[in-house]
Design a protein that fits this description.
2 copies of one chain form a homodimer. The first copy, chain A, has about 350 residues and is of the alpha/beta class. In chain A, about 25% of the residues lie in helices and about 25% in strands. In chain A, strands 3, 4, 5, 6, 7, 14 and 15 form a 7-stranded mixed sheet that branches. Chain A has a 6-stranded parallel sheet with strand order 10-9-8-11-12-13, sandwiched between helices. Chain A has a two-stranded antiparallel ribbon with strand order 1-2. In chain A, α3 packs across α4, α3 crosses α10 and α6 packs across α7. The radius of gyration of chain A is 20 Å and the shape is globular. At the A-B interface, α9 and β13 of A face α9 and β13 of B.
């Protein structure tokens, strides 16, 4: 059988027990030009929450009754396709289930083996999480040596990598924003940021000014809302504000808090720009090369938060919104699926 | 004597009788390397209102007791400078007064005579108003032939020029947003926009969708607030949102309404960018050449709203916020100052 988690009801606010249902379907059979994949690990990303809304997005909403859309990795157990061989470890849209078919409509990338990387590391820093950090900072953010960089969600999977790339490339100062003293300490001590501000404390805009008195050249935003507003009030001339995500808003689309400091974009001749990492798919190798180099050199600190059991995927998703995760959140569906 | 309007109190909301005071000072005398200018006409721009606030801006706030900062034009009546000759009609920061000195700190541009242009036209379309429209659309907005362009403040001095340049350069569709049926009719009938939506009517976002079903490629924003939000909800992929001004917000800095649709910048991989026309000063001639060509060809419709008397400058400024003006608002200080 194939255990699957489907969308039962569109959530209002956080995902709860009524949002999804665990169902059992027959294991799919491997037709011509297809490969059958046993899913090993799921990448739990904030964007999954946006796909649950019936709202315009960069992909269509997940339909009621459909398996929850998700990237992940698995092992090829049977193949009628020249693209895949049994035993290949592959990365792609596995969705929240135990078995998935690769075909022309749903292509997977074969991951390189024998490089001494474990699957969780690959799904984190060499997957879309790290690649998002790379292109958001360098391409959308037009980072230059000497820039002052501020990153929200700094203890998170993407944010922690943004700050480390910026430091490695010669940022003048890298400041994180995170939730709570423990995460702030981790951002400075583990990820090497120069400073980290706790957004749960009052007067964030003023503290940003104190930490970056000359203003922010690149602000990498993962959260939106009030924190984005506080950063906007501190941008430097010709600043680039990179909109990567708005996790503070995803659970409250109806009551999204407005950003009031857009006029700072005029005063500072600054730019705010959004992006979706999928648009960079033809350039993924460029990011992966630099990130793999940093991993091999031991200069990229990364942390994965593993949750075991397909049935816990909805709880794992909620961790992203409560701040209960530390590092990249992954769900282990089958612990035997590993890179060699 | 030199009649001057000075800032007496910082306004909260609209400028009123307590904001400014008319004072009389001695007429300045023309020192070495200076020229004495008799002011003929003032350019009344929304940005003047922002300078009255004690808030960070692209120029320092006007000090209490200082003459209100403003651009304008005048005639040189006496000159100890090789840059200016008596009789020259000059353009620069005249401020709200009858007499001003040109010197190294306050330089003026000598306007060309004998071209058959009147001073009001020059202050409107060949001055910062028209130049703002030009660079906002072409440079910040990266306008390309075939784009769908939406302009707020479309009946205003800048907005009306934005739409006409876009049409002249091959926009697929140009839609204005303006206040009230009379202005909307003017935008379509006089300025040649394809459509104009009245923001005072409900459901602006839905009406924008109906008027631009394929989405907005360039949104030129003069107003900010709710109208900016409605436009953001209708941007096309890779859209450029040009922040030129936020006139709906200038009178209510404390209660500025937040923009809630910033996540559309992510979904649509779009950019929102602010600019200040002064940054383009080295390229003004490029804009003036194209705009002068359109004026001479009779293909640029423009309208000036003249208010006579220096003492009425504060009322003229308020017209911009009440929508009581039609076209570029200018204050005639001395009607004898004219281009030959």
């Amino acid at each position: 059988m194939n255990r699957q988690i489907i969308l039962a009801n569109r959530p209002v606010g956080a995902v709860d027990s009524t949002t999804t249902t665990l169902v059992e379907s027959p294991r799919p059979s491997c037709g011509p030009d297809q490969a059958l994949i046993k899913v090993g690990m799921l990448s739990i990303d904030p964007t999954i929450r946006t796909w649950m809304n019936d709202a315009p997005g960069y992909l269509p909403p997940i339909g009621i009754g459909d398996v929850i859309r998700s990237s992940g990795a698995g092992v090829v157990v049977e193949s009628n396709s020249s693209r895949y061989n049994p035993g290949d470890i592959v990365y792609g849209m596995t969705n929240w289930q135990e078995w998935v078919l690769a075909d022309d409509q749903n292509k997977f990338t074969v991951l390189p083996q024998g490089m001494g990387l474990d699957l969780a590391t690959v799904l984190n820093v060499l997957g879309v999480t790290g690649i998002t950090a790379y292109f958001g900072l360098t391409d959308v953010g037009q980072f230059h040596e000497g820039d002052v960089v501020v990153v929200s969600g700094a203890a998170g999977a993407t944010g922690s990598v943004v700050g480390q790339i910026a430091k490695a490339r010669g940022a003048r100062r890298v400041v994180g924003i995170a939730g709570g003293p423990e995460k702030c300490a981790e951002v400075v001590e583990s990820y090497g940021f120069d400073d980290c501000l706790d957004y749960r404390e009052p007067h964030l805009a003023r503290r940003l000014h104190e930490s970056c008195p000359e203003g922010i050249d690149v602000y990498f935003d993962n959260v939106g809302g009030e924190i984005l507003d506080a950063a906007l009030s501190n941008i430097a001339m010709r600043a680039r504000v990179v909109l990567c995500g708005a996790i503070s808003q995803y659970n409250e689309m109806k009551n999204a808090r407005g950003v009031t400091n857009t006029s700072m974009l005029i005063m500072r001749r600054a730019r705010m720009e959004g992006f979706i990492v999928l648009d960079y798919s033809s350039r993924f190798a460029e990011a992966q090369l630099e990130l793999a180099g940093m991993v091999h050199a031991g200069s990229l600190v990364h942390r994965e938060h593993l949750v075991t059991g397909l049935e816990h995927a909805p709880d794992a998703l909620n961790l992203l919104f409560t701040g209960g995760n530390h590092g990249k959140t992954l769900v282990v569906v089958d612990e035997d699926v590993q890179l060699g």
